[in-house]
Amino acid sequence: MPLPNIFTKEVANNIVQRINSLNSTSVPLWGKMNVAQMLAHCNITYEMVFDDKHQKPNALLRFFLKMFVKKMVVNDADYKKNNQTAPAFIIRDSRDFEQERHRLIDFIQKTQELGVSYFHNKDSHSFGKLTSDEWNNMFYKHLNHHLSQFGV
Question: Which end of the chain is more exposed for a tag (fewer CB within 10 A), N or C?
Fold first, then answer.
């Protein structure tokens, strides 16, 4: 079943509402990250699209990611709880809840405003060119997974 379309205003606004229902003391139902770390973790996906702060994988690693990881990330099946996270997405230090929340909301709104056509066949950081459906699945299911982790 297709995932909700993060490029629509309705779905993006729903995700933002869920983010806004979190607070700095929200507790996870599973996992090790606190809420500020989770928001920072979710921001990394968008940093890899919009910022140049993360080094791209070398050709061999990118091949491995495309062959063995991409399908799990871009399909419409939910992530399992406590899945292994790629090293670039691990947040060990403390983060400012409000700053990370605002950054994530800004990224979601920017993504929605740029829309489907901007992302169709856009090159990803790790997987090569993705269709707009693959981008949608990657964005939506990651956010949904972590918001569900915190009960929202």
Answer: N
Residues forming beta bridges with residue 129, ordered by sequence position: 123
Residue 68 lies in a domain: yes
What is the domain count for the chain? 1
45: part of which helix (H) or strand (E)?
A: helix 35-50
The residue with tokens 């996992």 is 31
Identify the H or E element spanning 103. Answer: helix 97-119
Which helix (H) or strand (E) is 124 found in, with range? strand 122-124
Residue 1 lies in a domain: no
Closest CA to 31 of 18, 21, 46, 42: 42
Answer whether residue 122 is part of any domain: yes
In a domain, 4, yes or no: no
